[in-house]
């Protein structure tokens, strides 16, 4: 089926090259489609890497290997296959990944474990080794391409290419962070996410980069959901080439570490939002702001219970200020909640406070807010200082059309 | 909106009266509709009661009171309001429930705490006391009605009335169990369910009745899901009038206790299946049979992860044997699972065994099975002896239409 561009799409940002990062794409032909579907990223010697991966127990070989590889902290290459997730393919799938790692390592003269592989697409079909070999060979020889080309090539059911850019100042050096991501369905937290890649020319020690990425993940990718389904292949990798020449960051004690951490948070949040904006069938971008919870973790779990509730998501799709469904979702989260202290609102307008519907509740401004394409649900538990913000999209006919009407 | 009768509906069974149970309905007018919406059940003196209730933290006053009332173990009356759930209505909602309890208790000359009240419908609007008073008064004076009338009157978005009947032999006495239930959306386990009422003429001690009902609940209502959303008002009550004259059951040591327990399980399973058959937008009844799990509890959680997965439910709606989505759902459950021992099938035909797609997989019989309106998903974890069966329905355009296209 031809998917229309999400009405919530953002234009691709103007993204300059990042020193030490070379992008190339090729056509492996994993599916019968007339587009590039293999992305190869070459990284300068000395590039540090960190990663977060799906917590799905039936994860792909790529995720298993990636988890081991990031421990060594160094990367020289990245290959992303689109159209075949290679998940649930046993030893045949693993052999295909190892073949790609070997092929790129031989080209670069590096250790195989410095070559990262991700795959996305249908589950259960081993990645065809001949197509992979030819595709990698073509990519190794291809001219460099743009960020937008790379972002489009890693996509599958995505309706628009997704990129983000930010900068930070470390000492007297300005470093750049550029990132691309793909994902629109099978998106739920618990690690959370699709395939996302952050590239920076900053010099950052691998262990510190990992700590920063894990922390950013908790506040960004782990706070989004499209359909509560957690992919077997979710991966976010951060690569730091060190080409900017700053004094390497190794801890928060280093000058500029806070700025870099903030920039990493920012770019991860941008990426996470882009995925929600391309959520299957999405017509509205929904922010759920939870305050007054027993803890931040509790607030996040309550926010996700709301964001994952099909009844809440369909109510927003219908522009219905059905705050009763929000109450239901708060209650089902299993977290500390006191019905008589609970307040619910939309876009800054309270509908119920301290467990009671507002006597003078005026649905007018709320209805107007819900007609927009960015909706905020406000929930205050009235219990403590815990707070969290999570993001999701509405649940529409188009989600059903994408996932039921057409055979995958 | 006018809801069409579910294609999975069952005809209402032929249900005889149960000694000690008198059914009456009336029109309270909780909504602007031309139908009865208040059900009153009078129970003989000495009736034992047991109950299971929602675990939603934002539960209704009716649930809070009901939990207290079942501890005393005795019931004389039941009032069910349809069209207004009275949930999240604070002290005004509580006063309305207490008014109903007092009104019925005065009529029967019993303790107020022997009168049970349930309400279902919109959240956040206090039950109007004047309408409740007039409705109860009318019901107290009404002629007795049939099980089907009562089942229709407790319904809200239900598209067909739901009843079930079974019998058991205790000693030389045949006892009858008759039950009605309502529910079609906001259905998820964790207690689980809607409003359901089981009536029997058997004599059963309240504590034993509670133990049996709680056990049956774990295997029936807690094993169904429509949309993963847990209502604030879910309630199942079992009433035993003792009019059949059997020696009262007090433990499994009593003759006939096993037969009664089996009958209670059976009628609860019938009710649970009826709710799934009326799941909002349901076109297919789905049974998920999980074996080989680390434990029965683990099997149930894995089954529910599958049954709650929108991607699995839309795949079944699309008659797509997308077992990769089942793998994903198994993995996201967070339970012990080993990708390389996992087997997945549909209707008794394996698609993948021991972590690998079947080399000689023939999609023909699977496709035929999926075209039917009863679908079974088979999952074997290959780890242990844990097993569970859960039930759900598919996720269709009609679910979106019911919940998004029309304001509630």
Automatic annotation (TrEMBL), chains A, B:
Site (Involved in the stabilization of negative charge on the oxyanion by the formation of the oxyanion hole): residue numbering on this chain: 120-121
Transmembrane segments: none
Enzyme active site: 193 (nucleophile)
Catalyzed reactions per annotation: L-glutamate + acetyl-CoA = N-acetyl-L-glutamate + CoA + H(+); N(2)-acetyl-L-ornithine + L-glutamate = N-acetyl-L-glutamate + L-ornithine
Summary of the function given for this chain in its UniProt record: Catalyzes two activities which are involved in the cyclic version of arginine biosynthesis: the synthesis of N-acetylglutamate from glutamate and acetyl-CoA as the acetyl donor, and of ornithine by transacetylation between N(2)-acetylornithine and glutamate.
HAMAP family according to UniProt: ArgJ
Cytoplasm found in the keyword field: yes
Site (Cleavage): 192-193
Organism of this sequence: Pelagerythrobacter marinus
Alphabetized GO MF terms: L-glutamate N-acetyltransferase activity, acting on acetyl-L-ornithine as donor
EC number per UniProt: 2.3.1.35, 2.3.1.1
Binding site residues for substrate: 156, 182, 193, 280, 403, 408
Family classification: Belongs to the ArgJ family.
Name the UniProt record assigns to this protein: Arginine biosynthesis bifunctional protein ArgJ
Lineage of producing organism: Bacteria, Pseudomonadati, Pseudomonadota, Alphaproteobacteria, Sphingomonadales
Complex formation: Heterotetramer of two alpha and two beta chains.
Class of the enzyme per the UniProt entry, highest EC level: transferase
Known pathway: Amino-acid biosynthesis; L-arginine biosynthesis; L-ornithine and N-acetyl-L-glutamate from L-glutamate and N(2)-acetyl-L-ornithine (cyclic): step 1/1; Amino-acid biosynthesis; L-arginine biosynthesis; N(2)-acetyl-L-ornithine from L-glutamate: step 1/4
Assigned keywords, A-Z: Acyltransferase, Amino-acid biosynthesis, Arginine biosynthesis, Autocatalytic cleavage, Cytoplasm, Multifunctional enzyme, Transferase
Subcellular location: Cytoplasm
